[in-house]
Amino acid sequence: MLTTAHSRQHHAFEKSPNHMKNIDRKLQQAMSHAAGSKYMQRIYPLGIQRSSSNLTLSSLSLSQNSNDSSLSSSNSSWEPKVPLLYGGTFSPWGDVLVSLERRREDDKASDHDLEGEEDFDCSEPGSLHRCSWITKNSDEAYVQFHDECWGVPVYNDNRLFELLALSGMLIDHNWTEILKRRDMYREVFADFDPSTVAKMDETDIAEISGNKELKLAECRVRCIVENAKCIQKVAKEFGSFSGYMWGHVNHRPLVSKYKHHKYIPFQTPKSEAVSKDLVRRGFRLVGPVIVYSFMQAAGMVIDHLVDCFRFPECVRLAERSWGITNVAA
User: Which of 223, 200, 198 is nearest to 76 (CA)?
Assistant: First the structure.
């Protein structure tokens, strides 16, 4: 009976190709939105957890069409995770669409809740005023990263390579998890020296991916090694990886002046342009969202909230490095 019903359903789809295309397009759009929402939880901090929902900053999610992979390049991808959304089956499509549409409705409801939300200060009396996603429950490594690194302009090739690699790890982990293992990553990747990492062979890749403490899949390690090779090529062409990356922003940090975390984007036209050029040059794990996270961490974009104590400090660092004037006015 089930077999007969399934056959009729399959036959109906074959008779209506346009209907099938419409469903497939809706499915891809819904999956893109669902995957994006899941990924955003890893970036912020640099996330904000709301007690009423396990979604984070969903109002900042940009609409993504079915042809745009904002999380990573086609080489790096979510393919292993797609069967989880499909429930391991090809049909019926309707059940998948209903499930994903419900997720989209939940996201919209969360966004509506945030619209009327007042900004609040989670810091202790007398303490430094930080960005609102830093709370009294934030991990020490995460707070230190916010206070000392995030938004500080970085020009050293090794450090830029490190931040690009760490940002790519956001596809599997959040910032807190990554930062806790930062020293271990530096050790196995030779302090992120591109020339050394580029020489890593299959044995090295297998050894690193086999280290359970690092929690890096073989494909992720391979991406880092391939990116090191790409950095070497870029350095030959532009003099340094730093010169190439900073050239995308005219060698001047882009200073934002956001007063509330909900206005901070996940990607921008600039990060999309940088991502496209990186992919063209062979880089992997460099989708627009990952690239924007990298730009924030490397100080190419200063996205500290204006009332955070780090905002004026990072702006001063930008002014001192490149002679920028009046950016904080």
Answer: 223
**How much is the CA Rg of the chain, to the nearest whole Å?**
22
Note the pLDDT tens digit of each residue in 9-43. 444 444 444 544 454 555 455 545 544 544 444 44
d(CA 195, CA 1): 62
Q: Is the dihedral of CA 37, 103, 216, 78 positive or negative?
A: negative
Where on the phi/psi map is residue 285: left (φ > 0), alpha (ψ -120 to 50), or beta?
A: left
| Angle at 299 (CA atoms; ends 241, 50), nearest 5 degrees | 130
Determine the Cα–Cα distance for residues 262 and 109; give it in Å rounded to an integer: 15
Tell me the C-alpha distance between 229 and 282, whole Å: 9
Alpha helices in the chain (DSSP H): 2-15, 17-43, 82-86, 93-115, 140-148, 157-168, 175-180, 182-188, 194-197, 202-209, 218-238, 241-247, 269-280, 288-297, 310-322
What 3-state class would DSSP assign to 166? helix
Question: pTM of this prediction?
Answer: 0.67
List beta partners, residue 255: 302
Distance separating alpha carbons of residues 201 and 215, to the nearest angstrom = 19
CA 182 to chain centre: 17
Q: Is 18 exposed, middle or buried (0-12, 13-18, 19+ CB in 10 A)?
A: exposed
pLDDT in tens, 167-190: 999 999 999 999 999 999 999 999
